[in-house]
Design brief:
This protein is mainly alpha-helical. It is built from nine helices and no strands. The termini are far apart.
Length: about 140
């Protein structure tokens, strides 16, 4: 049995079980109006924009989208969209981060500016970091 209070169960009811959809409480239709409108905006942006008015009856909007959903045999793939992963989750803990002092000494020694340093970091990262690590080791000795 599908739970009409859960969003994706409600979506499945809309697309696959019209008789059970008619039995869904008005409160639950109102509850899911925003997300259903966002899902349908992927495929039908003009219609979704027209339904995106303040004060519009959310129950009528959901019933209108259900009429569109009846054209499909099942839940289409565009309903289940992937979200973009955050870049902070992909950072590696063992990644080398050079100290500011080592970078400054490297730039002074090689007579380069920030722009050239960034280019080295982009194109020859391994060699650059190897040099910076040796500078950091020599700093720690003194």
């Amino acid at each position: 049995m599908l739970d009409e209070t859960k969003l994706f169960d409600f979506v499945k009811l809309m697309f696959t079980k019209p008789k059970e959809y008619r039995a869904v409480k008005q409160h639950n239709k109102k509850r899911h109006q925003f997300m259903i409108n966002r899902f349908f905006a992927i495929k039908f942006p003009a219609n979704a924009q027209l339904f995106n008015l303040n004060g519009i009856n959310p129950i009528a909007v959901i019933d209108s989208w259900q009429l569109v959903a009846q054209r499909f045999n099942g839940v289409p793939g565009w309903i289940y969209t992937k979200t973009k992963k955050s870049t902070s989750a992909n950072t590696d803990k063992s990644k080398y981060i050079p100290s500011d002092e080592a970078v400054k000494l490297f730039m002074d020694k090689n007579e380069i500016g920030k722009r050239e340093y960034k280019e080295l970091e982009k194109f020859a990262k391994a060699d650059l970091y190897k040099s910076l690590q040796s500078i950091e080791r020599s700093i720690q000795v003194y």
